[in-house]
Amino acid sequence: MKTTKISALFMALAIVLSLVGFTYAHWAGTVRIEGTMKMAHMLIGIKSEKVLMSKDVEKYSSVTYEVSPDEHTLAIYSENLRPCWYIWVGLVMQNQGPLPGKMKPPEYSYDPSDTWGNYFETTEYFYGPYPENTGFGGLEVWGKAKIGEDLLSDGTVTFTTPSVPTPFTLNPTEKAVMWIWIHCKLDLPDDAKGDTITLYINIVDDIAI
Amino acid sequence: MKEKTLALLTVIFIAMSITGFTYAQWNDTIVVSNRMTFGYWGDLNLVFVYPLTCTEYHIHPVTGELLEGEYLGKDVGNSDCQYDYEITDTDTGKKGNKTLIITINNAYPSYEVHCNYTLENIGLLPLHINDTIISDPNGILTWDPAQGALVDAAGNPIINITTTPPLVSNTLQPEDDPNTPQLENRTEFEMVIHIADNAQECHTYTFQVEIMYEEA
Q1: Domain around B134
Q2: Which residues 105-144 of chain B have a CB within 8 Å of chain A?
Q3: How many structural domains are present in chain B?
Q4: Cα distance between residue A51 and residue B48, in whole Å
Q5: Distances from the Cα of B177 to the Cαs of A60, B135, B141, B155, B170, in angstroms?
Q6: pTM for this model (two decimals)
Q7: Domain assignment present for B41
Q8: Cα maximum dimension of chain A
Q9: Which DSSP state fits A114?
Q10: What is the ipTM for the molecules in this complex?
Q11: A20-43, pLDDT tens digit by residue?
């Protein structure tokens, strides 16, 4: 008898709980907003590059260089640097992303130590923007640029094409040319002799919206 | 005296008889039978209905004015919103959708989308919105109510989300009689989705807003 009563009680509780759940389900509900947001990407990459050395510098120094896989950095490996050593680095950059980009002066970093930056000076010149189908081979500031004539040892240029101040907007698919004068100062420390350093030139861009 | 004693005994006898009878009555089983029939209350049904629009906006960097479209008329980002999961209320026969899907492509910091949607009570009972839960289904972002934004692990706002008028405490009546606009069964809301400066390029972010309601 006692067992029967307890069973009945549990049955009653189970029924009541089911009813409560069923009733609540009918008296409450949810609607939902689902959002997906794909961010655009900024990609101003290096499409072409060259490093020009004067014949004087070529006699005692060598330079190799490569563009990083993300096309954002140019690494320059230099040997036998001396005071007054200099090179001209030319880059053609293209906005390959969907967003208008804002070109800014590049950033420099050095390996093995950024303190090497104290012994170098740099000057940048920007030209453009140019449409994607521009023939750069015939362009005064690229294909026809010569060290000693257009790109001088003191870091100045003689192009008739005026350079553009930074920052400037580079719309999707547009290209721009940058020339960088990199010059080794006179006060190189003695312990620098025999060292090999790597200079990284990092493209700096920002969203232009 | 003898008569008085006889009368007293008679009274006592009668009283005891009544008590016994009453007890006998109280000790019996009385069955109360009642038939109860529940009224039909139907389901609660809050749904999304048209109109539905998604519009791009930007804040002018100089004037601070909110303007439609992208800055300088550019066409970079794009947005789309649509309803999904249609249902029909079994009592009223009205239709609506349970899910609103918003898709934004090529978003960038400062990009802003205003999504205007309408919620309608298509059931038979009045209801009110009692809570909202904003979250990231992928668990990358968390909702920070103080900033009104989904934030990254460092607490930086990534997506600011605001809804006007506020969703919670809105009551929607089941009627849709034009003569009683105070008992309107639908309300239009505007959700503003603003991409904050800390949003990372090439990333895909997700968010979810659960709107919970119960009988008013």
Answers
A1: 46-215
A2: 105-111, 117, 119, 125, 137
A3: 1
A4: 62
A5: 93, 36, 43, 47, 18
A6: 0.67
A7: no
A8: 114
A9: G
A10: 0.78
A11: 555 555 578 999 999 999 998 878
